UniProtKB/TrEMBL annotation:
The chain crosses the membrane at residues 348-367. Residues 439-547 form the HTH araC/xylS-type domain. It comes from the Bacteria. This is HTH araC/xylS-type domain-containing protein. Residues 1-20 form the signal peptide. TPR repeats lie at residues 245-278. InterPro entries: HTH_AraC, TPR-like_helical_dom_sf, TPR_rpt. The keyword Transmembrane applies. It comes from Flavobacterium solisilvae. Keywords: Membrane, Signal, TPR repeat, Transmembrane, Transmembrane helix.
Length: 552
């Protein structure tokens, strides 16, 4: 009887092992076939099923490969929230086989970095790119290695795109990307010729963007040459549709900026036709924006209004989605930090007595240093508040009334690096803003600050530009030059200064919840408020309030 029982258990184990092995082989076969597909959207449900099945049976190789495909599809759709969600789930998995998965892991970390860059988390994104380079350099295939490295170097530039001082870094990484792409052999081994020239074309496109941007390297003629090289390569080779579309968008915008409005509309209309086969809301948004401006110049108001309506609707939808994604990522980061702290604490508790004493000593020293740093930051903040109060009293008679900004109709605003619709007639070279305009906007900003309108939750770059009677590009540049901050840092700084003064001057607010204080100065959530407060002051809201209470 006992022998029969053991044989039955053995048969069940063998059957389970055989079926599991068969399932993994089937998964590998289907994934190998899907990987060759250029349009993953057609098979997205199949990929999701494979990912879920792999997860159920514990086949991490299947999760890694199918997860990479899910990330790739989401990235092409600009669905950065799902890129990060999937990437964070699979990037630390361990393969169950001896397969070399350096290439997939290189892609996973690269796409994770790219998504986090687009959502504004540049420091975290850069760490992802470093990990991607680490895996990329381990890829055995010569062609695959250089192809993956070219993509990583190209994507890293997104981390620097809003930093004027990092122009040379952008050009360095783009040139590194071109260098790696050109090292790929035209023998078609592992990387097709089409993929090679797709990568080169895409970097040409970004070099065009680089020379179009305002800065010391601005060269519109050179930018146009790169855009045309890019489009020619896309026409010559069977490249990715998404990249082909973006090359037309860039060329269309170039034509508009040099006054070739008919060429601009023809190029952009063509991009919208192609876009139907690879839907991407950011691509449509850019096309709608430039088409609106170009048809205004061509004196075709009906077409201009149509694209303006399309632009406005799509822009609002994208803004809403982006805000949701950013809030979710901030929550995830906070949760991970909490989990790290919890794990560290558990590790300390299970160590030996000697090690515990050593760790305790180190922690005590670190704690003392940390407290000293916090206290110094608190003293600096108190000194700043007292100086500002003194300054306000001495300069009370110097306050002036700033005239209301004129209402501007039919302004069009954008959300990405190229997003600025102009109204009125002014020069193409937006760096040459006349002094009269600069002074007018600065005076209106001063009034905006005095009236504390920055504490409204719905204040954004677009609404502030409208209130001041200007456009987003002018406002952004003036804030950057005269306030030495980005728009977000400028608004956040005003909000934190406001709540700090309120807590200092009105003791009753020290009894309120942190979440309420955050809402009071314009922040949407407690977490974001706490992060920004710490960034601006060097201490947490809780620490600041507790120390104020001690001074009573």
């Amino acid at each position: 009887m006992k022998r029969h029982y053991l044989l039955t258990l053995f048969s069940i184990f063998v059957s389970f092992y055989t079926n599991a092995q068969k399932s993994t082989q089937e998964i590998d076969k289907v994934l190998q076939e899907i990987t060759k597909e250029s349009n993953l959207l057609k098979r997205i449900e199949e990929i999701e099923n494979i990912f879920n099945i792999s997860q159920k049976i514990g086949y991490t190789d299947g999760m890694i490969i199918s997860g990479r495909l899910l990330m790739l599809n989401a990235s092409r759709m600009s669905d950065y929230e799902n890129v990060i969600k999937t990437g964070d789930k699979i990037k630390n998995l361990k393969p169950v086989t001896n397969k070399n998965l350096n290439a997939p892991f290189s892609d996973i970390f690269r796409m994770n970095g790219l998504a986090k860059s687009y959502l504004g988390f540049s420091d975290i994104a850069f760490q992802e790119f470093k990990k991607a380079l680490e895996y990329g350099n381990k890829i055995e295939s010569y062609n695959s290695r250089h192809y993956k490295l070219s993509l990583i170097y190209e994507n890293i530039t997104i981390c620097y795109e809003n930093e004027i001082k990092k122009e040379d870094s952008i050009r360095y990484y783009l040139e590194k990307s071109i260098e790696k792409s050109k090292m790929i052999k035209d023998d078609g081994i592992d990387i097709s010729v089409n993929h090679k020239y797709d990568a080169i074309a895409n970097t040409y496109n970004l070099l065009g963007d680089f020379y179009m941007k305002d800065g010391k390297h601005k060269n519109i003629k050179k930018a146009g040459e790169y855009y045309k090289l890019c489009v020619n390569l896309h026409e010559k080779y069977e490249t990715l549709l998404t990249n082909k579309i973006f090359s037309l968008l860039s060329l269309g915008e170039y034509y508009h900026k040099v006054g070739k409005y008919k060429d601009a509309t023809e190029t952009l209309e063509k991009s919208l036709q192609l876009e139907k086969g690879a839907s991407n809301p950011l691509n449509r948004l850019l096309a709608f924006r430039i088409l609106t401006k170009s048809y205004i110049e061509l004196n075709q108001p009906e077409k201009s209004k149509k694209f303006l309506d399309d632009y406005t609707t799509l822009r609002d939808s994208i803004e809403y989605t982006k805000k949701k994604s950013i809030n979710k990522i901030i929550d995830t980061i906070s949760l991970k930090e909490h989990e790290k702290h919890k794990t560290s604490l558990n590790n300390i508790l299970i160590t030996s007595t000697i090690f515990f004493l050593i760790c305790g000593l180190i922690i005590f020293i670190s704690w003392k240093r940390h407290n000293k740093k916090l206290h110094n930051n608190y003293k600096k903040l108190m000194k700043k508040i007292k100086q500002e109060n003194k300054f306000d009293k001495n300069n009370l008679l110097d306050n002036t009334i700033i005239s209301e900004g004129e209402n501007i109709k039919n302004n069009i605003f954008s959300i990405n690096k190229k997003s600025n619709l102009y109204s009125g007639n002014f020069q193409n070279n937006t760096t040459n803003i006349v002094n009269e305009t600069v002074n007018s906007i600065l005076k209106k900003l001063e009034k905006f600050e005095k009236q504390k309108k920055y504490i409204k939750k719905d204040v954004n770059l677009a609404s502030l530009a409208t209130y001041l009677g200007t456009n987003t590009k002018y406002l952004s540049e003036i804030i950057k030059l005269h306030k030495e901050k980005s728009y977000s840092s400028y608004i956040n700084g005003l909000r934190i200064d406001y709540i700090v003064s309120l807590l200092y001057e009105e003791p009753k607010y020290r009894e309120y919840k942190i979440s309420y204080l955050g809402e009071l100065c314009g922040f949407a959530s407690r977490e974001v408020f706490s992060i920004v407060f710490k960034k601006e002051t060097g201490i947490t809201p809780f620490y600041f309030i507790e120390n104020l209470k001690k001074k009573i």
